[in-house]
Amino acid sequence: MLESLRSMDREILFWLNGLGSPGFDTFWVTFTQIYTWIPLYLLLFFLLFRRRPWRIALSLTLTMVLSLLTTLLLTNWVKNSVRRLRPNNDPEVQELIRILQEPVDFSFFSGHAAFSFCLTTLAVLVLRKDYRWIYTLYLWPVLLAYSRIYVGVHFPGDVLVGALAGSALAVLAYFLVARRLQTRA
């Protein structure tokens, strides 16, 4: 069963990574950088402060930051426990894919996917009543997750589990803290 999942993961990697072309490489390498998205993070915090009393908004911001730190810690712990090679370092696949980045740490699960889905899910849960369009924000983590496959540093299973882990941590943070803060606003 595990081997058939790994085989399917590799086949999907070959297909998704193979969709790339040199004309789009610079775009996806830039897109995959977390720092590229600082304006988006600032926009989310602006939207939060715009509709909430500053103490509530500050508490919600702290909740988001702590959720993201928890996500990063969990991601690093799992990566160092599972120790799955990234596609760019895996001798079975590295010669068969396009590689645009070459990190040397482990692959499972994707920190980019976990981080972006955690932030997006928490932002959507907190801001959904204020901004109906906020659900379109999910386009960002979906494309960010794809970018990790495009540049050759994650298997599809890595980004899928990262997305689920980040979303789950956001829902947990929302129900433990953020929802209660919102009722005070």
UniProtKB/TrEMBL annotation:
Gene3D superfamilies: Phosphatidic acid phosphatase type 2/haloperoxidase. The keyword Metal-binding does not apply. Residues 57-174 form the Phosphatidic acid phosphatase type 2/haloperoxidase domain. The chain crosses the membrane at residues 27-49, 56-78, 106-127, 134-153, 159-177. Keywords: Membrane, Transmembrane, Transmembrane helix. It comes from the Bacteria. InterPro entries: PAP2/HPO, PAP2/HPO_sf. The keyword Iron does not apply. PANTHER family: AT30094P (PTHR14969:SF13), SPHINGOSINE-1-PHOSPHATE PHOSPHOHYDROLASE (PTHR14969). This is Undecaprenyl-diphosphatase. It comes from Robiginitalea myxolifaciens.
